[in-house]
């Protein structure tokens, strides 16, 4: 295979729908939106209120993940005492089975990973408790065979059985565990002393069809996390923008944002954005000096 063919295959792969948004950013294919972007709005708000909660809604492919990644980079670069961390929730639990307490457990695991090198016994104790409640645990129990039986069976020995308790991330329970919230609270204090105020950008819940479950998670988990000082930016399904739970969601979060698509035919700003994006792509493929020679009529299509 020629180097030229290999190069063009790599460039074409960069524009596939399933390509990683992080790769597009790293390869410099990302350009600012025509108007004030969601990432700019959210990062500025978080700079003023680090523990605020933000709900970002939008259609599949509208650029929500890209905006989360840009928001993370912007915060970590511009806000000195705040640390932003991107999290794909689907890597921790089944999105379709999400219930109350799941986001708190996910946040607990993320904070545990950030503090895993700590030598503090207090921190290790909280990490162990969070992992126990999140993933489940096994416990030995002694069963007394004499219980409720006649004296004839007194010679039977007690039996030891191993019982398995499912964790919040592996079962749909809707049970709020106060000990989990307290453990996350204590761990967050340690994270703040090391990293600064923590802001987690939670992605993946836009694939959740059940807006009732989504509303319950937002009203419970996000408010609990905000109360202990954890800032949250949460991506949600587009249908939540139009159904009966919208008012509930708006009241449950500090800010409510919508990532819209661009109308490049009727919106002059979006038209310029589209043109700049295509120019950027051509320059990346052919180089800044050669693209005008290969595309002498390129500008004609945008007049």
How are the SSEs ordered, and which strands pair?
Elements: H1 3-13, H2 21-26, H3 38-48, E1 53-58, H4 64-78, E2 82-88, H5 102-114, H6 121-135, E3 136-143, E4 159-166, H7 178-195, E5 197-203, H8 211-227, E6 231-236, H9 246-252, E7 255-259, H10 268-286, H11 291-294
Helix pairs in contact: 3-4, 5-6, 5-7, 6-7
Unreliable stretches covering 5 or more consecutive residues: 288-303
Classify the secondary structure makeup into a structural class.
alpha/beta
Q: Report, as a whole number of angstroms, the end-to-end distance.
A: 39 Å
What do the pLDDT scores average to?
80
CATH topology, which one?
A: Rossmann fold
The appropriate CATH architecture is 3-Layer(aba) Sandwich
Number of domains: 1
H-E string: HHHEHEHHEEHEHEHEHH
Number of strands: 7
Radius of gyration of CA atoms, rounded to a whole number: 25 Å
Tally of alpha and pi helices: 11
Overall description:
This protein is α/β, with parallel strands linked by helices and 303 residues long. It has one domain: Rossmann fold (3-Layer(aba) Sandwich), CATH 3.40.50. The chain has helices at residues 3-13, 21-26, 38-48, 64-78, 102-114, 121-135, 178-195, 211-227, 246-252, 268-286, 291-294; strands at residues 53-58, 82-88, 136-143, 159-166, 197-203, 231-236, 255-259. It has a 5-stranded parallel sheet, sandwiched between helices. A two-stranded antiparallel ribbon has the order 3-4. Helix 8 (211-227) links the parallel strand 5 (197-203) and strand 6 (231-236). Helix 5 (102-114) packs antiparallel against helix 6 and helix 5 packs parallel to helix 7. The chain is globular and about 80 Å long.
């Amino acid at each position: 295979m020629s180097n030229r063919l290999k190069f063009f295959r790599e460039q074409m792969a960069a524009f596939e729908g399933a390509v990683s948004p992080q790769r597009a950013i790293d390869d410099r294919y990302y350009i600012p939106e025509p108007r004030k972007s969601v990432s700019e709005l959210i990062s500025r708000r978080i700079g003023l209120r680090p523990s605020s909660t933000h709900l970002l809604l939008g259609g599949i492919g509208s650029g929500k993940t890209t905006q989360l990644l840009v928001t993370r980079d912007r915060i970590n670069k511009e806000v000195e005492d705040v640390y932003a961390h991107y999290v794909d929730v689907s890597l921790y639990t089944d999105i379709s089975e999400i219930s109350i307490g799941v986001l708190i457990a996910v946040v607990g695991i993320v904070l545990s990973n950030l503090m895993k090198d700590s030598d503090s016994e207090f921190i290790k104790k909280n990490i162990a408790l969070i992992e126990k409640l999140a993933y489940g645990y096994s416990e030995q129990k002694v069963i007394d065979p004499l219980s409720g039986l006649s004296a004839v069976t007194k010679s039977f020995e007690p039996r030891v059985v191993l019982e398995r308790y499912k964790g919040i991330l592996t079962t749909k329970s809707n049970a709020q565990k106060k000990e989990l919230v307290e453990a996350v609270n204590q761990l967050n204090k340690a994270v703040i002393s090391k990293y600064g105020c923590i802001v987690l950008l939670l992605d993946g819940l836009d694939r959740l069809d059940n807006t009732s479950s989504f509303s319950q998670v937002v009203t419970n988990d996000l408010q609990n996390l905000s109360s202990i000082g954890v800032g949250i930016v949460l991506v949600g399904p587009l249908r939540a923008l139009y159904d009966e739970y919208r008012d509930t969601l708006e009241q449950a979060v500090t800010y409510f944002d919508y990532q819209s698509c661009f109308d490049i035919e009727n919106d002059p700003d979006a038209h310029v954005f589209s043109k700049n994006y295509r120019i950027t792509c051509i320059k990346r493929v052919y180089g800044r000096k050669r693209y005008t020679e290969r595309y002498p009529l390129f500008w004609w299509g945008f007049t």
